[in-house]
Structure formats: structure tokens, C-alpha cells
Prior knowledge:
α1 (3-27) packs across α2 (32-55). By secondary structure, the chain is mainly alpha-helical. It is globular. It is built from 4 helices and no strands. It binds zinc ion (ZN). Zinc ion (ZN) binds at residues 54, 60, 62, 64.
Amino acid sequence: xxxxxxxxxxxxxxxxxxxxxxxxxxxxxxxxxxxxxxxxxxxxxxxxxxxxxxxxxxxxxxxxxxxxxxxxxxxxxxxxxxxxxxxxxxxxxxxxxxxxxxx
Length: 103
Ligand SMILES: [Zn+2]
């Protein structure tokens, strides 16, 4: 994926998630954090579904092999690395986190 593709994909996904977040706030009694937790829970179930499709011998033939532990750590790191304020980065010790790739 080129940086341009990645930026465009990120922008599109962010816009879709922001719309879902705004919709959830407008149509539920969820607090802001509860709405974000709901979004994170949805992402977790999407991971599970995608991983299962790649574990299934009849599933996706692209060759990606899920590694549940490392994949979920990578997802958690993506949230933390992008959510934390720069001045608080040491609280999360992001430098000690495992390197993340496409696997
Ligand atoms: Zn695949």
C-alpha cells in the first residue's frame, strides 16, 4: 500500500467511524466513552470474523495468516499510539511496544 493509498484509506475509514460515532451519540444514551467502546468492540468482532475467514481452509486465499496474540496487541497499540497526547507518551511507554507490520 503506498503512502497515498494509506492516507486516503485512513481518511475514509476515519470519516466513516466518525459518522457512526455521531450517529450513536445522537440515537442512544451512550456516553462518549461508551460509544467509543462500542466502536472498539465492533472492531474486535470484525477482527475475529476476518481472522476466522483466513483460518478456514475454504476461506480467503490471499495468504495472510492471523496471529491472534500479536494481531490484537497491534490493534491495541494502534489505538494507544494515536489516542495519547504527545506529552503523555511516556505513560504508555510506546517505545517498548513490539514492532508492528502487515505480517
Ligand atoms: Zn485474505
